[in-house]
TrEMBL record:
This is Xylan alpha-1,2-glucuronidase. SUPFAM superfamilies: (Trans)glycosidases, beta-N-acetylhexosaminidase-like domain. Residues 155-471 form the Glycosyl hydrolase family 67 catalytic domain. Belongs to the glycosyl hydrolase 67 family. It catalyses: Hydrolysis of (1->2)-alpha-D-(4-O-methyl)glucuronosyl links in the main chain of hardwood xylans. It comes from Sphingomonas parva. The keyword Translocase does not apply.
Length: 720
């Protein structure tokens, strides 16, 4: 027995050494994302090897080419031998890719293609003429590409090749990335280098990376990309830039990805030579119509405009005493003849408005429900403030039955530790999407369009992509790009399943790796909430760049830019009263939801101080006082990061050295910064309430003044 154990240990040590050697040669640096296609383990390789000896793809479009090329690339990597393309099924197993129109064998199969629309697909293992065949079928070529990527995911994650029977289609129509990329290649809230779009070299030089970007997006079902920052520059709408946009659109088109641009509302003045941008002025309307005509002449499948107007200093219709519907409709009329849409953002809050900032978007947009053209979609952030570590869902979801809505999630982690903190956002988005609006369905049902029968709606994610070699600035932030796409395709998908698929494809298929890694990912968002803004606190980050804690900041130009506006801590208590005795933001929710949020005993503890101002000695469910609980939550967040570090350390045998070291180094930074958040926050709140720390809680490492004195003028993501 002992001997067997010894032998086992020796064998695994030997295998480890071997694999470390193999890792050293693979040069894994994260560029390949979840599309690494490294060889499968031998057993699975043999089974798939029998089922897939050749590829039969009869369609001829660029999209079919992309699908076939991906299958060749993927399966030859996974199976360790080439996948030849042939004209018809030979004597061994084959993959057959086609639409009923391109492939008579598929037309003859009576597959349930009526259920999958234009973008869906069917994958089925079957027999044709006595041969084993895996069929990928769709109504349109883009469905074939999505089906090809799905088959590759199945192979990568170790699904058995026998008995495949998948019928799938996206639930949401618009699945978009929003790049906050400037024309000088800086990226607002970008933590992964500079913009991918090399405007200076476009249109003549097409960086091969554009194709890899398109592949990665198509693999998760993204079907549109807004190339430019919402804080827009009108120049992108000039003819030379449109030529550059056209070049990018040409690369993305075979992958089913349309391009969109942000439209600066004052463009008619800035690049059109007009004196006004008043949306009701005939000359302004004519200018936008002509501009839209020019864009569509250049890019016939242009998606449309995304607009940030009358928000944080951006121009908009209110500059001319018009409302948001006037502005949106004017642009909608311009793109309508070409089939374009206008995504008008609801992220508005005004300098001169004393109303609780959390209420302003609803107050502005709810009365406009029913006043927008049918090609206007209002784009709403997941919560009513601004991508905080945790927010209740935005009250506009469910409240705009006559206006299609797009959900705006932020993939880039502006308020969640930038690229260095490991925070898997799948759980946060799942929580929002599954929230019951109280208007007859969940948030997911609103954004997939089914609750209010929207003709078009969907999800947009503010991208975390830059020109860093690993795309997202950290290996684990790739998971957020991935999870966003998967949830946009299916807003009911499970964050845990998505995390597991990602971990398998990105790192290792071994259960010994996948289980602990998924556990780390699933706990990570809550950890950040705990060490930054526990119990419903929000907007306590330092000024401008939002790097690190600044709960003491109270001197900014507008009240609602100050953290003190949000936490309202004084000697007696803490929190923002949004019940009827306070700002009454709760009443913007459906009554069934408002009742829960308004009740300090029923509101989820993680939203307690979002909705309630409570005395420091308020009794929590744990029996502890609010103050003690708050301090313990900060500590819980730090403890979780330490656990994450230890787990990652134990996973060293499964991960190539470079990526393992990268993640380990970032986790060290995360631990340091989690402690910083905890200590600075506790030191500050203690200076307000003068209460002792609960037993066992560590003393802050530095004085409050020392935390206040820290300054980071060059923190990333904050181009001026
Ligand atoms: C936040 C963010 C800004 C961004 C804005 C928006 O305020 O800090 O950089 O422009 O959101 O979503 O428009």
């Amino acid at each position: 027995m002992r001997l067997t154990n010894l032998l086992r240990t020796m064998v695994s040590a030997f295998l480890l050494l071997l694999s470390a050697g193999a890792f050293a040669q693979t040069g894994e640096d994260g560029y390949d994302l979840w599309l690494r296609y490294r060889p499968l383990e031998a057993g699975l390789q043999a089974r798939y090897g029998r089922a897939a000896t050749e590829l039969v793809a009869t369609g001829r479009s660029a999209t079919v080419e992309a699908a076939a090329a991906e299958l060749e690339r993927g399966l030859s990597g996974l199976l360790g031998r080439p996948l030849p393309r042939t004209a018809r099924i030979g004597k061994d197993g084959a993959i057959l890719l086609g639409t009923p129109a391109s492939t008579p064998a598929i037309a003859a199969m009576k597959l349930p293609l009526d259920r999958v629309g234009a973008e869906g697909f069917v994958i089925r293992s079957t027999r044709i003429g006595g041969r084993d065949v895996i069929v990928i079928a769709a109504n349109q070529d883009i469905g074939l590409l999505y089906g090809a990527f799905r088959l590759l995911r199945l192979v990568q994650t170790g699904a058995a090749p026998e008995g495949l029977d998948i019928v799938d289609a996206p639930k949401a129509k618009l699945r978009l990335l929003n790049h906050w990329d400037n024309l000088d290649r800086t990226v607002e809230r970008g933590y992964a280098g500079f913009s991918l779009w090399d405007w200076h070299k476009l249109p003549d030089y097409l960086d091969p990376r554009y194709t890899d970007y398109a592949r990665a997006n198509a693999s998760i079902g993204i079907n549109g990309t807004v190339l430019t920052n919402v804080n827009a520059n009108a120049e992108v709408l000039t003819a030379p830039y449109l030529e550059k946009v056209k070049a990018l659109a040409g690369v993305f088109r075979p992958y089913g990805i349309r391009v969109y641009l942000t439209a600066r509302f004052s463009a008619p003045i800035e690049i059109g030579g007009l004196k006004t941008a008043d949306p009701l002025d005939p000359a302004v309307r004519a200018w936008w119509r002509a501009k839209a005509d020019e864009i569509y002449r250049t890019i016939p499948d242009f998606g449309g405009f995304l607009v940030k107007a009358n928000s944080e200093g951006q121009p908009g219709p209110q500059d001319y005493k018009r409302n948001h519907a006037d502005g949106a409709n004017m642009l909608a009329d311009a793109v309508k003849p070409h089939g374009g849409v206008v995504m008008w953002r609801a992220f508005v809050y005004a300098a001169d408005n004393r109303e609780d900032r959390a209420k302003q978007a609803y107050s502005e947009f709810k009365p406009l429900d029913g006043h927008f053209r049918d090609n206007v979609i209002v784009q709403v952030k997941n919560g009513a403030i601004d991508f905080q570590p945790r927010e209740p869902f935005h009250p506009l979801f469910g409240a705009m039955p006559k206006t299609p809505l797009v959900m705006e999630f932020q993939i880039t982690k502006e308020y969640l530790g930038f690229a260095t903190h490991l925070a898997y956002l799948g759980t946060m988005w799942e929580e929002v999407l599954r929230a019951d609006t109280g208007h007859g369905g969940t948030v997911a049902r609103v954004v997939d369009g089914s609750l209010h029968h929207y003709p078009v709606s969907g999800l947009a994610g503010v991208a975390n992509i830059g020109n860093d070699r690993n795309w997202t600035g950290s290996h684990f932030d790739q998971a957020n790009w991935y999870a966003f796409g998967r949830l946009a395709w299916d807003p009911d998908a499970s964050a845990r399943t998505i995390a597991a698929d990602w971990a398998r494809m990105t790192f290792s298929n071994e259960d010994g790796f996948v289980r602990p890694t998924v556990d780390v990912m699933m706990a990570s968002h809550q950890a950040v909430v705990d060490y930054m803004t526990p119990l419903g606190l929000h907007h306590l980050m330092a000024t401008g760049h939002h790097y690190g804690p600044g709960p003491w900041v109270n001197d900014l130009g507008r009240p609602d830019w100050n953290p003190t506006y949000y936490h309202r801590a004084d000697a007696q208590g803490i929190g923002f009263d949004r019940t009827r005795s306070g700002s009454d933001a709760v009443s913007q929710y459906a009554p069934s939801v408002a009742r829960i949020f308004a009740d300090p005993k029923r509101v989820p503890e993680d939203l307690l101080l979002w909705f309630h101002h409570l005395p420091w000695d308020h009794r929590m469910a744990s029996g502890r006082s609010l103050w003690d609980e708050l301090v313990l939550r900060y500590g819980r967040g730090v403890a979780e990061v330490r656990r994450m570090r230890a787990t990652w350390e134990s996973l060293r045998p499964f991960v190539d050295p470079r990526r393992h070291a990268d993640v380990a180094a970032f986790l060290r930074i995360q631990e340091k910064e989690a402690i910083w958040w905890r200590d600075a926050s506790v030191a500050y709140f203690r200076s307000i309430n003068r209460l002792p720390l609960p037993p066992g809680a560590p003393e802050p490492a530095m004085s409050l003044d020392a935390y206040k004195a820290l300054s980071f003028p060059h923190a990333p993501g904050n181009p001026s």
